[in-house]
Amino acid sequence: MDNQATNISFIICPPNFRISYLKSHSIDLGEPVRFYSKEDLIQGLYFSTKESAIVYLMEKYGFSYALAKERLNDLFFLPQVPIGNVRIDQLISIKADLENQQLLAKSPYFSQGFEGKFAKVIGYHHHDKELHKLAKILGLQLVFETPSQFKKQEVFAFSSIQSEVDYFFNAASELIDNGVNINDIYVVYNDTNYHLPLLLGSHYFQMPINLPSIASWGATPLGQMAQKLFNDGQDIGLITAQLKQDFAIEDTHTVLLMIQKASQIKGSPATMRRYLKALLDQTNVPAKVMNPAIRILPSPYPIKGAYVFVLGANQGVIPSIHRDISFLNDEERQQLGRLTSTEQNDEEEGVWEYFLKTQTHLYISYHLIDERGQAFASPLINRLNFDKLTPRPRRIEFGRQSADIKLANMLDLKRVFHIDNELIAPYQKALNVAYRQYDYRFKPFDMNLLEAKLRMSYSRIDTFYQCRYRYYLDYVLDLEPFEGNFYTTFGSFAHAMLELSNDPDFDFDTSFNLLKNRYFFSIRDKAILDHLKPDLIEVISFNDEHKSHMHLVAQMNEVNLKFALDENTTFIGKIDKILLTQLEDKRFAAFVDYKTGDESFRPDKLQYGLSLQLPSYGLLFKRDPRFCDVDIIGYYIQNITPPPINLKPKEDYAKIYHNKVRLNGLSINNVPVLMTLDDTLRNSQYLVGIKISKEDKFSYPQRVFSQDDNERFLETTLSHINNAVKSIRACDFTINPRRIGKDYSCSYCPFRDMCFRPNHAVAKIYIESEDVDDGAELE
Q: How far is residue 290's CA from residue 283's CA, in Å, rounded to a whole number?
């Protein structure tokens, strides 16, 4: 081995191992040593592919850029003639096609100069059959590195990635404090989830670290402009001139070189657009290199004198896992003499094993919990029998900002979960953290909303008055994607059933089963739906019975209405049901909104911009030319899934249920007119809170309104809508949630952890309790 090592002529290693090797070995420049990767040897012995071959495959076979490159890498070690295997024969056909197009470049002299020479191999497994096959053809003697020493390492387990990164920066700071050169400190990680914590940690600890770039040119303004100009078919010279002028770049800029490269390859415009986009998307913007700084270890190869931190030594990450999911499966790869996924995993594990056994000054760690759930240590750590330890709490914190955050986190845990930590006292003694004194107030800034086109609805207005900041997050930033659940799907299902029930040929079971299959319900959801089936039957039966006690002219369902508030603002809404009645030659309208919860219309909330739904329907209705002469006589909510009913002995369930699904809201105070909607007014069977005394007076005045009241409802609603639009255009999104009794704006807010508002920011509104229901007993 020693004699061979002195006669090494070549180093065979993956490209990313070269820097690590050069840092660890002094090479005599008088004796030239050449570096080759396994891929270099394959392409030298067989063929290399021109870039135009990728475009050719994209053009002829419709491959993506990545798929074209994958197919090209599969063209080596193929037999000369088809063998009856579909995938292998397809590759043979593609190879022959590329040869006919002269897109495979062969080097007839490459194999000269290897015979009888020695090559040191690093980064490849000593059982790599592809490498041994190449060496046999070249007459090359392979010398594999083996660990000359083995140090049993300690491995630290951390609760999270963040705590692991904090440990790394503190440990690195301690090394520097003890005289270690920062340029001799390296970090290696295979999990991209470490990138952001490391970036933030560099800021918190004021410690430079040369992290790799994760931004591609395709995502930059320069790259996007280059794609646009190229896609528009402009002359390459004009594209180059415009980009140089707009972005102050030189001819040698990477993006300009990629455009030049694309312009020199033949292909259809559509294919060349895909090709350039792929080039820009796969090429990262160069990261800024700082010196001195902590460095990223380019490969798992030991560097003499280096202090290396291995972060995220978790199962499936270090070493990474190769799976049998490529175009050629493992059986076919074995047949061709290629490495199978199992052999690739052995090679990956062998490289890491060599590194972990031989690197001095090594610090290994892994995390136990991440966003995917529970995490585990790499099986390699267990196989090497490394000691897994829990790190002791640090008494010295090198990062001031990190310490502030850590103290605030400990105080949060104590305040919310009553978890005390012995470090709180010394941290508080050393630090002055303004805990829970954050200035939560929203600072307005220009969002170009002044003349933007706005489509406002009741739900948007309601969100705005519940909390302006939630409106900003929900509708301006659009942060909350709609996520359906059983209740939202059931709401749509119930609305559809109620609409179908108006068809003269309506059959409940047929319609129920039809819609049940049309909407997406899980097996569990379908069981709940069947349980709610009697509720829908009762509601439909109630509505049919109610019709027989009206002077109904027409019923309109799912009515879409809108009107223009101004030239840039439209107010829209959909009314579940409009009941049109008539007395003599005068028409009247009542609105019904279906709810699957226990809700009601509260006119005493209007002054606060709340409970605007039904009045906003009235506003939409009166602004429609078809209905401007129609008077509104009722605003109602119908709870189609009423709350559970606790029956007393001898109580009639049907009668009690009938009471629960009555229309709940406000009615006109004109008895003859209201009789067109319900001729049982003496003790209404269909309207909650409506009962007429012998003197023809309403027993519950809170349940009725006059036409003047209605005009006030509509004026108040319009005023609130206009004020909301004005504030939205002024970008006034103050954090101002409200609490009215049990109703609390923050209760189901998905952004509660983003606003940092203190309790005193909540506006408490006191309103007298709602009037009585008109009694559970019906005469």
A: 21
**Main-chain phi, psi angles of 632, to 5 degrees:** -90, 130
Q: Of 414, 430, 446, at which residue does a domain stop? A: 430
Total structural domains in the chain?
5
The answer to whether position 730 is within a domain reads no
pTM over cut 0.90: no
Are residues 208 and 221 both part of a single domain? no
Rounded distance, CA 186 to CA 201, Å? 15
Residues 86 and 228 in one domain: no
Distance CA 514, CA 499 (A): 14
295 three-state secondary structure = strand
Q: Mean pLDDT per 10-residue run, the chain (779 residues)?
A: 64 90 67 85 92 94 94 94 95 95 90 91 92 94 80 90 95 95 96 95 94 92 93 89 93 93 91 94 92 93 93 95 93 94 94 91 94 92 91 83 90 91 89 82 88 94 94 90 75 89 91 88 86 89 93 94 95 95 94 83 87 94 94 93 60 71 93 94 90 86 93 95 96 91 84 81 77 41
CA nearest neighbour of 636 among 672, 687, 712 = 687
Q: How far is CA 643 from CA 276, 519, 640, 646, 657, in A?
A: 61, 24, 10, 10, 10
Q: Are residues 297 and 328 in the same domain?
A: yes
Alpha-carbon distance of 122 to 125, in angstroms, equals 8
Q: Does residue 637 form part of some domain?
A: yes
Cα(174)–Cα(208) distance, integer angstroms: 15
User: Is the same domain home to 135 and 161?
Assistant: no
- Number of other CB atoms surrounding residue 703 within 10 Å: 22
Rounded CA-CA distance 80/89 in Å is 10
Inter-residue contact 595 to 661 (CB < 8 Å): no
Which residue, among 450, 405, 466, has the nearest Cα to 431 in the 3D structure?
405
Q: How far apart are CA 53 and CA 657, in angstroms?
A: 74
Decide if 686 contacts 546 (C-beta within 8 A): yes
Amino acid at 293: A
Same-domain pairing of 176 and 301: yes
In this structure, how many other beta carbons lie within 10 angstroms of the beta carbon of residue 210? 18
Domain that holds residue 425: 400-430
Identify the CATH number of the domain in which residue 333 sits: 3.40.50.300
In a domain, 737, yes or no: no
Do 35 and 55 lie in one domain? The reply is yes
Number of H helices, E strands in the chain: 28, 25
What does the block give as tokens for 111? Answer: 């194999």
Torsion (CA) 594, 479, 461, 750 in degrees, nearest 10: 60
Number of Cβ atoms within 10 Å of the Cβ of 65: 20
User: Does the residue 107 lie in any domain?
Assistant: yes
The Cα–Cα gap between 183 and 415 comes to 42
Residue with tokens 């000269």: 112
**Do 315 and 384 fall into the same domain?**
yes
Same domain, 698 and 605: yes
Residue that terminates a domain, selected from 672, 705, 721: 721
Say how far apart CA 643 and CA 661 lie, in whole Å.
10
CA dist 30 and 16 (Å) reads 24
